[in-house]
Predict the structure.
Amino acid sequence: MKVDPQQLIDDGYIVLRQVVPPDQLETLRTSFETLVEKQKGVWARERKPEEKPGGVWTTSAQPRVFFDEVVDAETADTVEFCLHENTLGVSQQLMRAPDAVITLMALMCNPVQDHGPASWHRDIDPTGQAPLKGMQMDYVKNGPGYVQWNIPLYDDSVFWLVPRSYCRPNTPEEYQHLLSRPQEPMPGGIPIELSAGDGVVYSHMGLHWGSNYSTKLRRTVHLGYRAFGGDSYPIVDHFYWNMGFTQHLPTEARS
């Protein structure tokens, strides 16, 4: 799959069709559902006394399975998908990097009861990374050193964003909206309509929104990749996994 890195710089996101090869979709659905069931068991055992039975699965507005924590040899195809030319390969193209590696492997799931909309936000921490304006200037001049993905296994339109908001500060109108109506549609915001297997790759610095955490079935793969080498600075420089899970992978993926 070939992509134009300039499109990501121009718009802050790219929608790609059939990121999941059609002949792999059902198999991946089965594997990910196996991981969900394993994680539900972990959450049930770890729940606090004051929580409902089921723990995080029954209380969270958006249960997230960090699937490297529950993967095994039978479900290793979930991690192999994260190393596919349509995911890792595309990310490396977009970052124009000699090397790239995955930093985040998660599966976003629907809650067991309606929680409604989340709040608009940017996935940044200026206190631990850099001032937003500096990160934006670097991104525009040198390209991204980190990219983020949503890839649904079932049709999904929960994710909204404001195109090109990644490369500028909030407008006065946006600032007031965030203060007074953070859980309502943002002026200029658009829903990203994805069919099962499609994907959106985007800058995490842009304004985006989880528009409705309802009980509608949701299994959306959420990934992050960072560059090694190249011109851009990877402002996400940590990993949400440790090496232990690689023992379950085939030799090539483990390497």
About this structure: Residues 25-46 form the longest helix (22 residues). The chain has eight helices and nine strands. Strands lie at 13-16, 64-65, 99-109, 146-152, 159-161, 190-191, 199-202, 208-210, 219-228.
